[in-house]
Amino acid sequence: MENVTLKLLQAMKARGEKIACLTAYDASFAALLDQAGIDVILVGDSLGMVVQGHTSTVSVTMDDMIYHSQCVSSAVEHSLVISDMPFMTYTNVEQALANATDLIQIGGAQMVKLEASARQVSIVHELSECGVPVCAHLGLRPQYVHKLGGYFMQGASEESAEELFSNAMSLQAAGADMLLLECIPGSLARKITHHCAIPVIGIGAGPECDGQILVLHDVLGVTRGITPKFAKNFLAVAKDIPAAVAAYVDAVKSSSFPADA
Ligand code: KIV
């Protein structure tokens, strides 16, 4: 199996080959996803909800992220590992540089992800100039849950769609190596994907992104009663967990997941 690098992900985008991504938080699942052919494993701050049992991601700390990043990166041989920068850990360039360094040097991540709009353009630029690969997460940004008053689709009005598109372009120009679009209309995700040279991964953003990501627990139907509309339980029709993950990889690669609806 080939090691997944940024260069390979860019080549996959150029070839039109879909990129299959999932979250993981521990070594056992990370090894399973790695062996199943998942291209990108995200150590998401969703761990605040699915591992720690909170109602949002905002309580996740750098210590939590470093610990779970180490658990995951120690078990991965081929997939690219991305770690989330938690809430309020990238409010200025100095803080972002120090925390990204820890996720890469101590946590073993190969890329960091941060929730971004226009304010984060200069931070992405500095990280990139210093050699830190960055994924910019746009659209629904779960760390803004208390500002938003809940989890809602973003970019639905013409004005917010234009702003999101412009932010995506600015973040790419600042040096972002990947975009993640969460919960935006499929038509907007398609436009951003077609205009971007870098890989664009979607979650609840329609079928036309360069790749897809889901939270592992949603793929396995471990949802504590809350299932996002865009999630799918692949274990419901598979014989075991490795078969469910393999079915997810196949569905993403063959473009049968997600459906337009
Ligand atoms: O933290 C996370 O798991 C994420 C996904 C929702 C993509 O950012």
Provide a descriptive summary of the structure in words.
- With 261 residues, the protein is of the alpha/beta class.
- 41% of the residues lie in helices and 15% in strands.
- The chain has helices at 6-15, 27-36, 47-50, 62-73, 93-105, 121-129, 145-148, 158-174, 186-195, 216-219, 241-253, and strands spanning 19-23, 40-43, 80-84, 111-115, 134-139, 178-182, 200-203, 211-214.
- The longest helix is centred in the middle third of the chain and has 17 residues, at 158-174.
- It is globular and about 45 Å long.
- The model has no long low-confidence stretch (mean pLDDT 97).
- The chain binds 3-methyl-2-oxobutanoic acid.
- 3-methyl-2-oxobutanoic acid binds at residues 23, 42, 44-46, 84, 137, 180, 182, 203, 213, 215.
| Computed Rg | 17 Å
Tally of DSSP β-strands: 8
Q: What is the molecular shape?
A: globular
Point out poorly predicted stretches: none
What share of the residues does DSSP label as strand, in percent? 5-15%
Q: Label the structural class.
A: alpha/beta
Could you tell me how far the N terminus lies from the C terminus, measured between alpha carbons in angstroms? 33 Å
Order of helices and strands: HEHEHHEHEHEHHEHEEHH
Strand order, sheet with most strands: 1-2-3-4-5-6-7-8
Total DSSP helices: 11
Share in helix? 40-55%
Query: What's the overall average pLDDT, rounded?
Result: 97
Biggest sheet: strands, sense, closure? 8 strands, parallel, barrel
